[in-house]
Amino acid sequence: MDTFGIRELRDLTGQYDGPCVSVYLPTHVAGEQGQQDPVRLKNLLQRAEEHLSDGWLRAPEARKLVKAARDLPHDSIFWNERSHGLAIFMTPDSLQRFRLPLTFDELVVVNRRFHVKPLLPLVTGGERFYILALSQNKVQFYLASRFTIDSVEVPGLPANMEAALNYADADRGSQAHSAMRGSLGKQAAVFHGQGGRSDTRKEDLAQYFRLIDAALGPVLRDETTPMLLAGVEYLLPIYREVSGYSHVAERDLVGNCDYLSAHELHQRAWPLMEPTFQRVRNDATDKFHTLAGTGTTSDDIRQIISAAHEGRIETLFVDTHALQWGRYDPQTAKVELRDEPQTGDDDLLDLAAVQTLSRRGTVYSVERGQVPSGAPAAAVFRY
After folding, report:
1. Integer distance in angstroms from the first to the last C-alpha of the chain?
2. One-character DSSP codes across 174-241
3. Closest alpha carbon to 309 in 281, 342, 332, 283
4. Segment 344-370, tens digit of pLDDT
5. What value does the mean pLDDT take over residues 174-181?
6. Who wins on pLDDT, 31 or 73?
7. 309 vs 346: CA distance, rounded Å
8. What per-residue string of b and e applies to 99-133 under the rule 16 or more CB within 10 Å gives b?
């Protein structure tokens, strides 16, 4: 499986020269059905070449663009690492492919930009959260979503408690450390004692966690993304006391996480965070229904695409599997809708989602029937 996150999505929604080819294929992790995956990919690549030759490129140029991807059906190592879905993106100068934990509909799109809507469940819907796994021996910091987890590089983040406190040179006999202000503005807790081993140990942990919090400060500044704490039970309340981050999740992942892989950590973390995100999504759905009829909501793609370009969409629900072909002219706000795509047409649902994200709106890419109004898309407007 490959990594796909916000960074990769931003890259795909950038500007590219020449036609952009997007290919989606559901794949099989194992079993006899998986033997058909390379054959089905060859058929989709042939379809992509035909689309390119139909109004985009001359036949030899179309064949050349697809050529790099034609090696994939014969790459046994590539297929050994497959997941539930494969996404391939091609231009005359580039090839990107992602094996991902989503089951895609078979799809080929040739346009002036890449078609990214099938990927949105990986990175949208506000389902992003940090994981801070703490122990005296190790510190791990991740950014995760429902499907993904990625390590985050944090300059100055202590590797462990011994390195952070420099035990070899430190004077361990002091009664208490001086009070410090949390790196994000919250007054840090001060622990007092009479020099006993237990009090000293707690002070050491508090100082260690202050150093972690200080390193995370630049990363978390202006963030509202929830952060899940993971570690043995007695450590986590101490970190909460010294942390200046106001979006630490209510629930903790309790246990020794030192020997967990990122995948194992994610498997344990997501069930703890999912109820929080479900509540947020339910609130967004309720808001759509409450405001319906006030002029600040719509499920008409004509209104939605125009509002998306103007940056007026606060929340957009879009059916991951639906396609609405057509064209939008931002100069005149004219919308053309078609049942079947013509050369140069957009999936307007995809375009609305990309425009909403680029203007800091929230997008929920949902299964059929989960858009609040039952239409392919529904939006709550900022104004």
Report:
1. 41
2. -S-PPP-B-TTSPBPP----SS-HHHHHHHHHHHHHHHHHHHHHHHHTT----EEEEE-TTTHHHHHH
3. 332
4. 899 999 999 999 999 989 999 998 889
5. 41
6. 73
7. 14
8. bbbbebeebbbbbebbbbbbbbbbbbbbbbbbbbb
Average pLDDT over residues 162-185: 54
Look up tokens 């929080």; give the residue: 276
Which residues on neighbouring strands pair with residue 283, listed in sequence order? none
CA-closest candidate to residue 345, choices 355, 353, 337 = 337
Predicted structure pTM score: 0.75
Q: Inform me whether the pLDDT recorded for 177 exceeds 70.
A: no
Band (33; pLDDT cuts 50, 70, 90): low
Residue 234: is its pLDDT beyond 90?
A: yes
Q: Are 140 and 378 in contact (CB under 8 A)?
A: no
E strands, the chain, are 20-26, 85-91, 94-100, 107-111, 129-134, 139-144, 149-151, 227-231, 253-254, 297-298, 313-319, 325-329, 334-338, 346-347, 362-366, 377-381
Name the residue among 124, 112, 121, 116 with its Cα closest to residue 23.
116
